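Ops channel
N.P.: pipeline sanity check, posting one input/output pair.
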């Protein structure tokens, strides 16, 4: 599943279509795509893993799910979920979820929980985290209502940077360590964005999908952790388990 930084890249890549009128629309999505024809795109926005195409009185939300893809000015052999054709160019989405949000987009999203938004509020994240004292930190970091845009890669890398075991219980983690985790969720997301643009993201992974701890030179533990049973890669020696 694409994480927040990848959706920001999508927004940047399709900027050329902002302000353009859709002259043709097609696709096998279940929404009423006919209403998009002859509509002008006002803006593209992102909220975490959601890509938003904003029109005058509604917004099209696209979620890439696990295997969603998109192509600009080219197509696959397979029929797209949603295809938007402009006077100059086209935008095609595949294997994704498409939904229409009526009215003001600001009524649907809290921009202060998006770790890559200019309105990101780490203090709010701290308060939300404290309301889940018995949860494992691996689950809380992936909670999109607290850390919108953070996915499993970022989770693993942040916890490794902060020397915290993914199965640590929130209320047992020292306050200064929790503050560090919160800050790193945003910091690492922007580093992820920078590296991905340079096509070198994987070479910077220190925990995700790695076999050996760089600090301790011992094998990483690989385990599905938390209520979500998402893959975690961690060092049992240097990542402290607060329990």
């Amino acid at each position: 599943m694409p994480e927040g930084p990848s959706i920001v890249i999508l927004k940047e890549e399709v900027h050329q279509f902002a302000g353009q009128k859709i002259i043709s629309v097609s696709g096998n999505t279940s929404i009423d795509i006919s209403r998009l024809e002859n509509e002008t795109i006002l803006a593209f926005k992102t909220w975490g893993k959601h890509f938003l195409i904003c029109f005058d009185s509604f917004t099209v939300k696209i979620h890439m799910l696990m295997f969603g893809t998109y192509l600009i000015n080219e197509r696959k052999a397979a029929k797209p979920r949603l295809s938007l054709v402009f006077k100059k160019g086209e935008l095609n989405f595949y294997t994704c979820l498409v939904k229409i949000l009526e009215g003001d987009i600001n009524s649907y999203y809290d921009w202060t929980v998006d770790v890559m938004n200019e309105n990101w509020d780490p203090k709010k994240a701290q308060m939300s985290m404290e309301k889940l004292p018995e949860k494992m930190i691996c689950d809380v970091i992936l909670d999109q209502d607290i850390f919108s845009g953070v996915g499993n890669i970022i989770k693993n890398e942040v916890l490794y940077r902060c020397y915290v075991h993914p199965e640590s219980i929130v209320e047992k983690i020292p306050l200064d360590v929790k503050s560090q985790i919160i800050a790193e969720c945003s910091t690492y997301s922007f580093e992820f964005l920078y590296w991905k643009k340079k096509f070198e993201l994987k070479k910077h992974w220190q925990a995700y999908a790695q076999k050996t701890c760089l600090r301790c030179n011992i094998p990483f533990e690989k385990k599905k952790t938390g209520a979500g049973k998402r893959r975690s890669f961690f060092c049992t020696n240097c990542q402290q388990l607060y329990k």
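N.P.: looks fine end to end. The beta strands are 24-26, 43-47, 50-54, 58-63, 69-72, 82-86, 89-94, 97-102, 221-225, 230-234.
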